[in-house]
Specification:
transmembrane helix; APC family permease; 492 residues; AA/rel_permease1; APC_superfamily; membrane; 1% strand
């Protein structure tokens, strides 16, 4: 039960957001600076110098998925997005699974990112000359210290998410302005004065050659784009629901431009062995190569801002997805509570932060759990491909009548989503098979194929278990009505 306001009416979500807020949330969740800064090395290790090519190829199905999200949101704006749309169009079991894997994947990502954020903050502190505080050595390589500091950052961004989503998106906007300014400047510097020759073959996907490398690179590139759909989680808090789709598309095309810009810049300044060797330190290494202190520290500061914004933008959609599931009684009543003061799902937001923090702390106590989290992050592209693919197929199924009545519109509402969904799910299955065959035994290691396959498989199995609890234990109307979600409460 929600607490009531002084007037006796239940507290409601507030419509206060516009296009800029949607762009800020989607862009922060995608975290271009973080993806470029720590992901280009992994992409180079997978597809060599064809990073720009694989990013362009990955954008095509993502664009089809975005078209599906926008079309479904116009038809049925709901903060539950894929959970609601897949449930109604394909079936409640797969609908619940879509919502579940999205939530679990994001929480695992938050647990991992909070430790990364803490480490970046410590590196920045060391760069500023602060190596010790109150007798404590500020070592960025300390997993425990990085995790604890990252949890303080997570708690801080949770507070901003609770006190009003508009305050959070405005804060994210200023972070984006700074980090993109730094990224544009340093990558532009590298493109103009880079020591490595530019080659148009970087944009040729056929130069990759190896099918497994292509599939792994494609899933990794899809993971780069992951997060733009966060804009759809606040559709019930947006003044005009059409602004949600606009914000998502603006952010998505901006991400494509930034990723191509960053990948070319890295390859103009660094050789392939350098890219692979630097790995997660790619952006800070670029700053050190191009500039002297204190300017060389700016990319690190931009990376820190990106990590903070990414954490905050992960808390917001996760709490709202759980709120939508709570309304249907597929999840507990805690998630339906709306703060009468702030008009946000405050209790759910705190609970999401607590769960992510708990996973991070358990990883400190159980060393093998840390490897499990790392394996989950490495294979989270499979989860993303699954729920994006199911949502796209839901769009094609729901609007299949357009093939007869509106052939032109059917290209956007049926054909593009269907092809994109099939492509992502097909690539996910191919890569899953590759994980299965790359090892001949099971080992608790993020490099073991069976283990990497077991983590997303466990998430999927747990989703079906929780779906059974929702249907038979909670008697959720979501299952009784074949995925027809309960009407969203009126927003204020």
């Amino acid at each position: 039960m929600n607490s009531t306001t002084t007037s006796g009416t239940p507290p409601r979500l507030r419509r206060s957001l516009g296009v800029v807020d949607g762009v800020a949330l989607a862009a922060s969740s995608t975290a271009a600076t973080t993806s470029i800064g720590i992901g280009m090395g992994a992409l180079a290790a997978t597809v060599g110098l064809q990073a720009p090519a694989i990013l362009l190829v990955a954008f095509l199905p993502i664009l089809g998925i975005a078209t599906a999200y926008a079309r479904l949101n116009r038809s049925e704006p709901n903060m539950g997005s894929g959970y609601v749309w897949v449930g109604k169009s394909i079936g409640p079991w797969l609908g619940f699974l879509t919502g579940w894997v999205t939530l679990v994947g994001t929480i695992i990502f938050m647990a991992y990112t909070s430790a990364v954020t803490g480490s970046v903050v410590l590196i920045f502190a060391n760069k500023a000359g602060l190596h010790e505080l109150l007798g404590l050595q500020l070592d960025p390589n300390s997993t425990a210290l990085s995790t604890v500091l990252g949890l303080f950052v997570l708690a801080a961004v949770t507070v901003t998410a609770i006190t009003g989503v508009r305050h959070a998106t405005r804060f994210q906007t200023w972070l984006l302005v700074f980090e993109y300014g730094v990224l544009l400047a340093f990558c532009g510097w590298a493109i103009v004065g880079g020591t490595q020759g530019f080659d148009w073959s970087w944009f040729d996907p056929f130069a990759i050659g190896d099918g497994t490398a292509f599939a792994q690179g494609l899933v990794l590139a899809v993971f780069f784009f992951w997060g733009w759909d966060a804009a759809f989680s606040v559709t019930e808090e947006t003044k005009d629901t059409r602004d949600v789709g606009r914000g998502g598309f603006i952010a998505l095309f901006t991400m494509l431009a930034m990723f191509l810009y960053g990948s070319v810049a890295f390859q103009r300044e660094m050789s392939l062995p350098e890219l692979i060797e630097q790995g997660p330190q790619g952006l800070t290494y670029l700053g050190e190569k191009l500039a002297s202190e204190p300017w060389a520290t700016l990319p690190l500061l931009a990376l820190m801002c990106s990590a903070v914004a990414s954490l905050q933008s992960s808390v917001i959609p996760t709490a709202r997805g759980l709120h939508a599931m709570g309304r249907d009684r597929t999840m507990g009543p805690l998630w339906t509570k709306i703060s009468p003061r702030y008009g946000s799902p405050a209790a759910g937001t705190v609970a999401v932060m607590t769960v992510a923090a708990g996973v991070s702390l358990l990883a400190l106590a159980i060393p093998k759990l840390n490897e499990m989290i790392l394996a989950a992050v490495n294979s989270i592209g499979l989860i993303v491909a699954l729920y994006y693919g199911l949502t796209a197929l839901a769009c094609a199924v729901r609007f299949r009548s357009d093939l007869r009545t509106a052939p032109r519109q059917a290209v956007r509402s049926v054909l593009a989503p269907a092809l994109s969904g099939i492509a992502l799910i097909g690539i996910g299955c191919y890569l899953g098979h590759d994980y299965y065959t790359m090892s001949d035994h099971f080992e608790l290691s993020p490099d073991n194929g069976w283990f990497m396959l077991a983590v997303p498989s466990a998430i999927i199995v747990s989703g079906f278990v929780m779906a059974a609890v929702a249907k038979y234990g909670r008697r959720s109307p979501y299952f009784q009505k074949q995925g027809f979600s309960l009407a969203a409460p009126e927003t204020d």
